[in-house]
Amino acid sequence: MVDGGSAGARGRRAREEALELARRSREASERARRWTDASEEERRVAATLLTLTADGWRLLVDRTWPGTPSADAPMILVGRGGVFVVDVVNRPVPPSVENGRLTGHDDDLARMAALARAVEERTAALGMSPVAVQPLMIFAGHRLDEQLARVRLVGREDVVNVLMAAPRRLNAPMVKAVAAHLEEGFPGVESCALPERRPDAGAGAGEAESLFDVEEVEKAVLESVLHGPIEQWMTFLHPDQVAIARRDWSGPARISGPAGTGKTVVGLHRAVHIATRTTGPIMYVTFVNNLPRVQGRLFQRMAGHLADRVEFTSLHGWAQRFLTDRGIRVNLDRRQVEDAFSRAWLQVGRGSALTEIDPLPHYWEQEIDHVIKGRGLTTAEEYLAVSRYGRRTPLQAAHREAVWRLYEAYELLRRRRDVHDFNDVLLLALRELRERPVSPSYAAVIVDEVQDLTLIGVRLLHALAGDRPNGLLLIGDGQQAVYPGGFRLAEAGVGIKGRGAVLRINYRNAAPILDEALRLVSEDPFDDLDGPTPNGHRTVETTYHEGRVVHAAARSEADHDEHLVKALTARAEDDADALSGTAVLCRSRNDVEHYHRLLTRAGLPVLRLDGYDGRPADALKIGTYLRSKGLEFKNVYLPAFNARPVVPGGDPTADERAALTRRQTFVAMTRARDVLWLGTINPER
Ligand SMILES: Nc1ncnc2c1ncn2[C@@H]1O[C@H](COP(=O)(O)OP(=O)(O)OP(=O)(O)O)[C@@H](O)[C@H]1O
């Protein structure tokens, strides 16, 4: 939020900064005059870049620069906006960009790309991501500001504005450290800077003498402040994370690791890495609908210039668009589908052997969804023989036969109604894709939260990416699977042998929160695409930060709800911004409705997670555990939490359901960074 007072102060600081740069630009021009071999325009570029050194930037130039035979050697500029590999072009003909190509500069671009890579290599050792390295081509004597793939093309008079407006990635000590590290790595360059300003060297230079327009620079400074600083992880990663993001994989690969270990972060950096090395489109796909918006927004902040190279989408969203584009009709009708299943249950399920195991239809509906259709089984023989990974309730042949009859009855009714379920969408898309592949093909398909996909979903994405090097990347954690059923990658025809990476440092949760969450699932084995685990114990390191778990026990629902409202109101009164980093997560949609009403009545601003896109909003977020996948919040409230410990030896389908509920609850708990509030209702207390 921008209030009047601080906006005024920010405006004054921006003006002072712009004026100071203008003053120092005169000094820089004086200094550049000594470079007698350089042309007038080259001297002006040199002076412009030198000016920035007065504001903490570091300019690394070829030792012979400028005005020598190697005068056009690229330079490196390091400042709060990151690292810029700079090339200066001094030609009378204005630059012309047509169809994404800059005519007549192939050599310059190739030279810059080579230096940018060398700089990336060098800074990777500091844990710096390539997103913070940007090639910049400065055109002396012309005005422009354009992005051409990774390279920003700017006129000499536009450079200062562009650099001052960039979101802030590095603080002053980081600028120094990165510049020193580069100077050491490139012995041919040296640091070139204006002398430190003497305290008595005051005003004197008018705006007219400046190398740039002071008002434009002032606006640029303000713009960079309003962007807010770029989150640290967008610039610096753990060296292991950088190595994984940049790794060369000869075929499909996999990244796994417990909750909060930076899997998505690495996936996003991987997308950048591939976008800068290929020309084809890149897909970043996940199962949940709301997550692509949030991830797309993060990516935009991280590497906005590559945003049009990466398509953030949900799997079903993509499949539906694909089918529509191909003229294939899809009739997704949830109500009709549910009705078809209910009737099938009444006809052949309710009186069958299935009721010996579970008398309610839900378990069997999931069996059809996740085991039969989700794995693309088409014959009873296949189903009789299939290993039902992830489903703990054993089924005899008679039960499987009964399930198959239920499936056939459901399919018949569904077809008669001419409607599709979600599995049909993927099955149709896979069939179409195999007959007519997409063109141009995807350079890479990065799948986040892969544990939630069905086998057919993975086959579909594999069909899109193929086995090409660096093509398919599967990111996920079986412990966070929120849907029943499972499969082995080999069944999807995806081989990842020797191409796996595991992340182990949790950067998100305060240690007490992670401990509490892991305790809930520690006895539950889970299925992890390439095999089961014996239990839920994980090796995770936490990064130190303060945080706590708050248990709020109540005797009645009314008491519990009052506790919740009080706790949230107190948080809002404590800190006006606190609500924007707070989420209330609920087990069911009914609970979401209930708590949404309760909190709105209490006067608290509430935003549904369904509509959330990661943008800061002065409202607390509310949604189901499932909707919270992949997200995180400073404070998380789980009303009516009442998680139960594992009770072995009970009813098998009830045990299976309880384990699934614990995994869903685990996901919700691990969304909390600093505070996890667990509300329980216990009438016997
Ligand atoms: N190197 C790092 N330095 C600082 N913070 C980091 C780093 N890597 C990741 N993080 C932060 O850790 C948090 C978790 O990252 P991320 O969401 O990528 O984890 P994840 O493994 O995908 O989580 P989950 O599986 O629980 O959804 C984020 O806040 C992210 O910004």
UniProtKB/TrEMBL annotation:
Residue ranges of every copy of the UvrD-like helicase ATP-binding domain listed in the record: 236-547
Any single Gene Ontology cellular-component annotation: cytosol
Keywords recorded for this protein, A-Z: ATP-binding, Helicase, Hydrolase, Nucleotide-binding
Official protein name in the record: NERD nuclease
UniProt xrefs under Pfam families: UvrD-helicase
Record's keyword annotation contains Transferase: no
Superkingdom of the organism of origin: Bacteria
The keyword ATP-binding is annotated on this UniProt entry: yes
Entry's Gene Ontology molecular function annotations: 3'-5' DNA helicase activity; ATP binding; DNA binding; hydrolase activity
GO biological process entries: recombinational repair
Residues that coordinate or bind ATP: 257-264
